[in-house]
C-alpha cells in the first residue's frame, strides 16, 4: 500500500469516526463515499467492514449500561443480521459500474433524508411491528452498499431515544449488522490480503477519533457538524456522478 493510499484511508475513517462518535451515524456514509472515489465501490465497502464493526463494538461497550433503555431489542437485531445476507449477495454479484450506480442513488437518498429531516416516526404497536422490518431493510442496504444510516436513523427516531441512548441504540443495531457483514463478506470471498491489511489499519483512526467525537456530543452544535458532514458527502456524490457520466 502506498503512502498516499494510507493517508486517504486514514483521513476518510478519521472524519467518519468523529461523526460516528458524536452522533452514532456517519462512519459508513462518509468513509465509503470518500474511499469509493479513489479505490472503487466494492473495495471501499469491503475495506470499511472491519473498522465499522470495531467502531460499534467500541461504542456499545463504553455505553453498555444503556441496554435497559431499549425496548424489545432482540427482534430488530436478529432481523438486521438476516437482512445482511441478502445484501452481501448483491454486493458479490453486481459488477463495479452497477454497484457505483446503486451507491450513488443510495447516497442521494441519504442526503435527502438529512437535508430535509425526513423521518418516519411510528409509535405504539406500529413501532413494535415496523421495528424488525426497518432493521431488516437496514441489513440489506448495509450488505449491498455498506450504508444503512437512513433506516437505522428511522428505527432510532421511532423510539424517541435521548441523545446518548440514541448513539448507543444505533451503534447496537449497527453492531449486529456489521459483525454479520464481516462474516458474509468473508464467505463471499471478497477479502484479500490487501483489503484485510487496509481494514485493520483503518482501526487506528477509529480508536482515536470515536472517543473524541463522543466527548464532543454535548459541546458542539449537532446542526453545524451535520452541515459539514453533508458537505463532504455531497462533494463525494458529485465525484461519483461525474465518474459515471465521464465513464
What are the defining features of this structure?
mainly alpha, single chain, 247 residues
Structure in words:
There is one protein chain. It is built from eleven helices and no strands. By secondary structure, the chain is mainly alpha-helical. The chain has one domain. Helix 4 packs across helix 8 and helix 5 packs antiparallel against helix 11. The chain is globular.
Our measurement of the CA-to-CA distance between the termini, rounded to an integer number of angstroms, reads: 26 Å
**Structural class estimated from helices and strands:** mainly alpha
Specify the number of helices: 11
The dominant shape is globular
Domains (count): 1
| Tally of strands | 0
Major beta sheet summary = none
Give the percentage of residues in beta strands.
under 5%
Q: Please identify the oligomeric state.
A: single chain
Roughly how much helix do the residues carry, as a percent range? over 70%
Helix-strand pattern? HHHHHHHHHHH
The average pLDDT score comes to 83
Radius of gyration: 17 Å
State the low-pLDDT regions, or none.
none
Briefly, what is this?
Helices cover about 80% and strands about 0% of the residues. The chain is mainly α and about 250 residues long.
Reconstruct the topology from this structure.
Blueprint: H1 3-23, H2 27-39, H3 41-62, H4 74-93, H5 96-115, H6 124-145, H7 149-159, H8 163-187, H9 193-201, H10 203-215, H11 222-246
Helix pairs in contact: 1-2, 1-3, 1-10, 1-11, 2-3, 2-11, 3-8, 3-9, 3-10, 4-6, 4-8, 5-11, 6-7, 6-8, 7-8
